[in-house]
């Protein structure tokens, strides 16, 4: 009888973990994401478009991989290889529609090879300059929260710093809204000539 009871508890927990957060909250819904700002030799950044709109490639960090292994795996999903990995930002989202906080790490990297191709479920990929990237991510058709544009702009505008910040995210209809919980702050300093900067000749050669 005790064994049957334990099996019932395990089955209940398993089913709950597979149920959407809005319908069945779990005890520890927090999660971590990894996001890539991939720059090519023309200083263009890779954007993807899915049902939420335009953004840089990203994924949940939930595989048994080191950080760099996971980032390489994410890049490979898009058909490319990367090098010169540099931490660009660490941000938090606190959600109003589910009891979760996501920790979001953003990395600036250099394209090392391959041909970018959209993974299954993604409509389009584009190499664009930074102003165009921010314009696409801010289009009125976007469903992603405005926080995504704000933090991307901060990292692209001042790339020699590692940025932090936090946002509250909630849903309105099919779109998401945001407000700042913690203003942008400098967490540290990084490469003074990162991928995407003008003075990068030596780093380009080192990345081959």
Number of structural domains: 1
CATH superfamily: Nucleoside Triphosphate Pyrophosphohydrolase
- Shape type: globular
Helix fraction? Answer: 25-40%
- Helical element count? 5
**Looking at CATH, which topology would you report?**
Nucleoside Triphosphate Pyrophosphohydrolase
Count the beta strands: 9
Uncertain segments are 1-26
CATH class annotation: Alpha Beta
> Which oligomeric form is depicted?
single chain
How many angstroms does the end-to-end distance come to? Answer: 64 Å
CATH architecture: Alpha-Beta Complex
Summarize the biggest pleated sheet: 6 strands, mixed
Please explain how this structure is put together.
- This protein has a single domain, classed as Nucleoside Triphosphate Pyrophosphohydrolase.
- 25% of the residues lie in helices and 40% in strands.
- The strands form two sheets. It has a six-stranded mixed sheet. Strands 3-2-7 form a three-stranded antiparallel sheet.
- It is α+β, with helices and mostly antiparallel strands and 208 residues long.
- Residues 1-26 have low confidence and may be disordered.
- It contains five helices and nine strands, in the order αββββαβββααββα.
């Amino acid at each position: 009888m005790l064994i049957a009871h334990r099996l019932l508890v395990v089955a209940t927990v398993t089913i709950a973990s597979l149920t959407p957060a809005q319908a069945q909250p779990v005890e520890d819904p927090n999660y971590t994401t990894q996001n890539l700002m991939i720059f090519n030799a023309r200083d263009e950044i890779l954007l993807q478009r899915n049902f939420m709109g335009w953004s840089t490639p990203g994924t949940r960090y939930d595989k048994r991989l080191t950080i760099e292994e996971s980032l390489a795996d994410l890049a490979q999903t898009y058909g490319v290889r990367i090098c010169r990995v540099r931490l660009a930002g660490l941000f938090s989202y606190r959600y109003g529609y589910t009891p979760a906080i996501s920790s979001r790490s953003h990395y600036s990297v250099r394209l090392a090879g391959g041909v970018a191709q959209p993974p299954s479920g993604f409509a389009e990929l584009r190499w664009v300059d930074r102003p165009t990237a921010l314009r696409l991510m801010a289009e009125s058709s976007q469903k992603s929260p405005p926080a995504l544009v704000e933090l991307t702009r901060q990292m692209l505008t001042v790339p020699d710093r590692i940025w932090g910040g936090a946002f509250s995210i909630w849903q309105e209809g099919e779109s998401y809204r945001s407000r700042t919980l913690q203003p942008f702050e400098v967490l540290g300093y990084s490469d003074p000539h990162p991928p995407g900067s003008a003075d990068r000749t030596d780093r380009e050669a080192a990345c081959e």
